Amino acid sequence: MGDLRGFLKVKRGASQYRPVCERLKDHCEVCLLPEVECSQEQASRCMDCGTPFCHWGCPIGNYIPEWNDLVFRGHWQKAFQLLAATNNFPEITGRICSGLCEYSCVLGINDDPVTIKENELAIIEYAFQMGLVKPSLLKKRTGKQIAIVGSGPAGLSLADQLNKAGHLVVVFEKADKIGGMLRYGIPDFKLEKWILDRRIEILKREGIIFNTGVYVGKGLKDEYLKKEFDAICLAMGCGVPRDLNIEGRSLSGIHFAMDYLIQTNKKVSEEKIPSDKLIDAKGKRVVVIGGGDTGADCLGVAHRQGAKCVVQIELLAKPPECRTPDYPWPKYPLLCKTTTSHEEGGIREWSVSTKKLIGENGWVKKLLCQRVNQETAGREFEIEADLVILALGFLHPERNGLLKDLCLELDSRGNVKTDENYMTSSKGIFSAGDMHRGQSLVVWAISEGRKTAYAIDKYLMGKSNLSML
């Protein structure tokens, strides 16, 4: 390492964000990129730890100590080359990854961990700025054709890897634009869509074919895919939301989080939304049920739409602020997470169970709730609401349509069952990402896409030179 005592000299720098009063007026990115000098200084904190557990924590096996050292020395181009060797989309993970690597950083045992995510983002944005990220044009193709259904992070990383192996890759997406949940499920204040478009344009120039507005299983039947392609991979995500089956659920003004976020992202990109379908928090009392990242995203959207007030409630108890013996280093700990959306306002309540939704003239007006540890008669309380957003996670992939037509075997959780090579119960048909794994993180989706690409390449060619990570 460049400075073996850097971690003793430099403390972890705080992330920089746009002022709340400014960012609430738009949907632009909240996070500010660090200055080059700041990134180099922070990279010096990556110590010669012997066994870098950040590798263990990172699902895609990023060469973290190596490119931190290169950043510290100012060798940005070499740092980019190492980063691109394991990560197809560092401009995305550098913005929205949960940072599993940072929680397993050795320095984190007795100090604040290295700013790995910010350093990663600094490397890739420097590379784009300097024109280092260029399409890699293949001179020879294998003659094999592969269909990928779904264009989220798993489908895109899978397509990128298989294209690099020389196969002709065709991606089918039922939405009007490529990106899956990256485009429609993540607010622009966390991931502006020009960032996604910038990468997709490179993938197109490299030869990947994208077909949008194609609903495989309805408009396009599975028989066509089986006939025209040498292998098929399903990467359609885990899209069936968990519902709240209580009295009053049928009232108007109650929506799933993804319906809210997808519509908002479409509106931000200037797509027209019919007035009778519009979900708007302006001037309303909003309650978000669900305390995870998706719920926090809904909180941020409601703030930007001008909600009168926002309350986020969670069934579970409030997590601790620091590690507990149940989650020792280097495990990813269950901690109370305060996002940029929480910093913008709103009220958070923990250990709250929603018992009933109360309406007036067919529209939701109140939630009847109880504290989880006080569920006895007479201990209920009410929360007023004009708009309720259900952010309760997802159950499993959509089973009707393509999955039903293909008669694929499912696992005990209702996800697509595969073998160790990501092949489903039907030969030549594979599955990757949340559709196979269940609801998870973007970095795990990218990891599964890369591993499935290796498996498909080996299935078609008998061997593969693609990375296993």
Topology-level CATH name of the largest domain: FAD/NAD(P)-binding domain
Average residue-wise pLDDT:
95
Can you say what the CATH homologous superfamily of the largest domain is?
Answer: FAD/NAD(P)-binding domain
The neighbouring-strand order within the major sheet is 3-2-1-4-15
- Based on Cα principal axes, name the global outline: globular
The CATH class of the largest domain is identified as Alpha Beta
- Class by SSE composition: alpha/beta
Name the beta content range.
Answer: 5-15%
Helix content: 25-40%
Point out poorly predicted stretches: none
Total domain units? 3
Word description of this protein:
- With 469 residues, this protein is α/β, with parallel strands linked by helices.
- Helix 5 packs antiparallel against helix 6, helix 6 (76-86) packs across helix 9 (116-129) and helix 10 (153-164) packs parallel to helix 19.
- The protein is globular.
- The chain has 3 domains: 6-129, Orthogonal Bundle (Fumarate Reductase Iron-sulfur Protein, Chain B, domain 2); 145-239 and 396-461, FAD/NAD(P)-binding domain (3-Layer(bba) Sandwich); 243-392, FAD/NAD(P)-binding domain (3-Layer(bba) Sandwich), CATH 3.50.50.
- It is built from 19 helices and 15 strands.
- The relative contact order is 0.13.
- A 5-stranded parallel beta sheet has the order 3-2-1-4-15, with helices on both faces.
- It is 34% helix and 15% strand.
- The mean pLDDT is 95.
